[in-house]
Design brief:
Elements (H helix, E strand, L loop, with lengths): L34 H22 L4 H21 L23
Length: 104
């Protein structure tokens, strides 16, 4: 692991690094993630919205369970696309004019 990807305490995050863990990406401060990960989250959000609207309209149980099935399908996509491996590790922030980390 390079110096700029280490956490503020100088240690390592468990499961990361050269031991076969997820790849470390130098962060840009944004919300990282692949397009496939965002697709899985969008499918879950769509299913949740459909199920919520179905509860408000009656309730319409058939449409509710269809929305629930879409949510479950999104959960399977999250596992298949390995969404939780989309991590962004930023370099520790430094206070201006000092060599100390903000968390020190």
């Amino acid at each position: 692991m390079t110096e700029d990807t280490r956490p503020a305490g100088g240690g390592t995050h468990e499961g990361q690094g050269g031991d076969g863990g997820p790849a470390l990406h130098k962060g840009s401060g944004g919300h990282g993630g692949r397009a496939s990960s965002w697709l899985a989250v969008t499918v879950i959000l769509l299913g949740f919205t459909v199920a919520g609207v179905a509860l408000c309209l009656g309730p319409n149980w058939f449409v509710f369970w269809m929305g629930a099935a879409v949510c479950a399908m999104g959960g399977v996509l999250i596992l298949v696309f390995r969404v939780f491996q989309d991590i962004v590790v930023e370099a520790p922030r430094r206070m201006s004019g000092t060599g100390r980390s903000v968390l020190d």
